[in-house]
Design goal:
- This protein is mainly β.
- It has 2 domains: 44-431, Methylamine Dehydrogenase, Chain H; 441-754, 7 Propeller (Methylamine Dehydrogenase, Chain H), CATH 2.130.10.10.
- Helix content is 3%, strand content 37%.
- It contains 1 helix and 60 strands.
């Protein structure tokens, strides 16, 4: 061994020991973690049932990881909460596969985005039903939250030889593993990668400037389907099918275990395959769409392919368009014990809703189920206002012909009397999302009075939680107005029943604004009479300590203030676009903002009418990009409750800064390397300063931290098995010491308390 190499190793070992020492010096506290119950809220992209073990099934989501069904508890168990912020790309599950011959083995193809900022995907493998994992990094990108994400399954285990797996990628063709997913090699013989070439840039005739035509997101090989009956147990299955999301030739077959591939003759032309399922009688059922979805699908079909004779039959239940409504088809499922009994889902049939069709004669005739179905919304009352849509996956329980489940853009519906429909009776469906929380919270507040938590959410507006363990009976924020997405919330520190919110709507109708206020703690809302600009809404919003001044920075806009609850608006001095404003918690005339470009801190002492630079010693915010939370590194201001002029400012890459003189001077917290979000909670016994809660990095450890001594020391309250992917928007509870709430990038709102204090009846 060379001396230089020895020196490098010694230095490396010293650094490793030092890092371990730093980690060991950080105290920790055992916390119990739970979801604030909303019930679904995000796109469940697939359900996969195990063919040999009753009650064993899994669900994958586009941004919220994967879940296993616990049949004894009748709820979903998250199995990817161990993924931390450094690996947030893995929280989007591209595909999920089970080993038909071994119920303990489960595989995930994990990778949320395929853009340049995102890392490559990985194959995760478990031999204990997802309780622990091993990882195989792949030399390619995945797209668990991209177009065609409900297609599948593109990851498949050989039913006769469990050590063999195939994976169809979006851009890089077909891949094979022969060692239970530990290593992978590209199948060079597969005829196509499914990659769509980028169009040539050309010039606009009007401006003579380049007009760039970016290609659509790549979807690639969307399913791999083994034919178990073509082989024998213990030997590789010879017959395999693979579908590619292109409009041209898109179904291929191998008869020698994937060594060579041929086109399947007679397949439909001009449509992309979405799903394929093979019945026990040798019939393969396939669904198609003109576009890969999920946002658009203007045509589609359901076909039956006789794998023995090679014959194709169009068995589409309802042709597109239906009146003026174009649509496609999502998924098809077959009864394991009755191969002629099938169900299929439409996709993007928005008016009045997507439909489940049922056939008992192999698709020769069909009848709809949902038009006369009974839907039980009691578990998640907010679902009453959302029509079934994005129905990209449907499964008939292989052990119970009456039990069927389908996924939507907001969760899973389940039915236990499917065969009643065969005699013309109605079916009963219930929202089966207990434990599966996939919302994307954008802001959280915990006022000192009223409801313990109010949340701003992507796609489903927001909620007021009086009881954390129940989806609010009144559903989303009580309209009017109803926002598709609420982006920002704030309450008046000295008048906490006064709350403001800003969000986004689908359009601009009569009397429709993007902001609202509540005078009763979020029970009811009144829309602002006007918007300050023609912005698309959202942005950030603040309110003075007494509730009399509202300051709003809409998207792509400068800041404005209102002293009449949104009837009129006035620009906040000469602040430029994008300045987020924070109110002092005591003085109603004092507001703060930060210029991330210059590093200057600004203060207003006249109710946001003007802002004056108070300090220029703060860091200049840098850009960062990881494919998920890309943007500025921060400069987020928090005003300490009941302490005038006491403010904190957090930076994602620079740390945490504190001022006790309204920003005239700041001191840096030495042990905090990264600060994504800071919040306040009830002070510890004997303390008169609020407990601080931090999402960030302390002593080289990424996590959730609490400080009871004004940030002098920090205690880690989460652990490596409870990292929840992307975490942001943390706040404590001002009435319960130790309780912390935080927002995730797809696992909903999480709350935790010290293990010894959390009870089943937590409110």
């Amino acid at each position: 061994m060379h001396r230089k190499q020895t020196a490098v190793i010694v230095v490396g070992l010293f650094f490793l020991i030092q890092c371990q020492t730093i980690r060991a010096q950080i105290p920790s506290e055992k916390y119990e973690w739970r979801n604030v119950i909303i019930g679904g809220g995000g796109f469940v992209t697939a359900i996969v049932t195990h063919p040999a073990q009753k009650g064993l099934m899994y669900a994958r989501t586009d941004v919220g990881g994967a879940y296993r069904w616990d049949s004894s508890a009748q709820k979903w168990i998250p199995i990817t909460d161990w993924i931390g912020m450094a690996d947030i790309n893995l929280t989007g599950i591209e595909s999920l596969a089970l080993d038909p011959s071994d119920p303990d083995r489960v595989y995930l193809a994990a990778g949320i985005y395929s853009n340049p900022q995102s890392g490559n995907g990985a194959i995760l493998r478990s031999t204990d039903q997802g309780r622990s994992w091993q990882r195989a990094d792949m030399p390619l990108k995945m797209g668990g939250n991209e177009t065609g994400r409900f297609n599948g399954e593109r990851l498949a285990v050989d039913p006769n030889d469990g050590k063999i797996l195939f994976f169809g990628s979006r851009r890089d063709g077909l891949w094979k593993s022969e060692d239970y997913g530990a290593t992978w090699n590209q199948v060079k013989s597969f005829p196509t990668t499914g990659k769509i070439p980028a169009p040539t840039n050309n010039f606009s005739a009007n401006t003579n400037r380049p007009r760039y035509n970016f290609p659509p997101q790549q979807v690639g090989i969307v399913f791999v389907q083994f034919d178990p009956g073509s082989g024998a147990r213990g030997n590789p299955t010879p017959v395999i099918y693979a579908g590619v999301s292109i409009l041209e030739t898109n179904l291929f077959c191998s008869t020698n275990g994937g060594d060579t591939w041929q086109t399947v003759p007679g397949e439909p032309a001009g449509l992309r395959p979405n799903h394929a399922v093979l019945a026990s009688d040798g019939m393969m059922y396939l669904t198609y769409g003109k576009e890969p979805g999920p946002n658009t699908m203007t045509d589609g079909a359901v076909w039956k392919f006789n794998t023995k004779s090679g014959d194709w039959t169009d068995i589409t239940p309802l042709k597109s368009p239906d009146g003026n409504q174009p649509f496609g088809y999502g998924d098809v499922a077959v009864d394991a014990t009755h191969p002629n009994a099938i169900v299929a889902t439409t996709f993007c049939h928005w008016g009045p809703h997507d439909e489940v069709f049922r056939s008992t004669n192999g698709g020769a005739s069909w009848f709809p189920l949902l038009d006369k179905a009974e839907l039980d919304h009691s578990f998640a009352p907010y679902t009453e206002s959302i029509k079934p849509h994005w129905m990209g996956s449907i499964q008939i329980d292989p052990f119970d012909s009456n039990h069927v489940l389908f996924t939507t853009g907001y969760g899973i519906w389940s039915c236990n009397n499917l065969t009643d429909a065969d005699s013309g009776k109605s079916t009963h469906w219930f929202f089966a999302d207990d434990g599966l929380e996939e919302t994307v919270p954008l802001d959280l507040i915990s006022p000192p009075a009223g409801a313990h938590l109010l949340s701003a959410l992507g796609d489903i507006d927001g909620f007021k939680h009086d009881d954390l363990n129940v989806s609010p009976r009144k559903g989303m924020f009580k309209a009017p107005p109803h926002f598709v997405t609420t982006e920002s919330l704030a309450f008046a520190a000295k008048n906490p029943g006064f709350i403001v919110r800003a969000g986004m709507t689908r359009g601009r109708g009569d009397n429709e604004t993007h902001g609202a206020y509540s005078s009763d703690g979020g029970e009811t809302w009144t829309a602002f009479a006007t918007d300050p600009t023609e912005s698309t809404g959202g942005g950030t919003i603040a309110v003075s300590a007494d509730g009399k001044i509202i300051v709003w920075t809409p998207r792509r806009s400068a800041a404005f203030f209102s002293r009449d609850n949104g009837l009129t608006w006035t620009a906040c001095g000469d602040l430029d676009r994008g300045f987020s404003v924070t109110a002092d918690s005591v003085n109603p005339n004092r507001f703060y903002t930060f210029d991330s470009r210059s590093g200057k801190f600004y203060v207003s002492t006249n109710g946001a009418a003007d802002f004056i630079a108070a300090d220029s010693g703060l860091p200049v915010a840098k850009r960062f990009g990881n494919g998920f939370g890309a943007g500025s590194e921060g400069g987020i201001i928090c005003a300490t409750p009941e302490n005038e002029g006491d403010v904190w400012i957090s930076f994602r890459n620079t740390g945490l800064f504190h001022s006790t003189d309204s920003g005239a001077t700041f001191s840096k917290s030495g042990s905090v390397q990264q600060a994504y979000s800071l919040g306040f909670g009830k002070a510890a016994t004997g303390k008169n300063y609020p407990a601080l809660y931090l999402i960030g990095k302390v002593g080289e450890v990424q996590g959730v931290f609490r400080s009871d001594d004004v940030g002098a020391t920090w205690t880690r309250v989460n652990d490596d098995q409870h990292q929840f992917g992307w975490i942001s928007h943390v706040t404590g509870d001002p009435r319960i010491y130790g309780r912390v709430y935080f927002a995730t990038g797809g696992r909903g709102v999480i709350y935790g308390e010290p293990a010894e204090s959390l009870t089943a009846g937590a409110k």
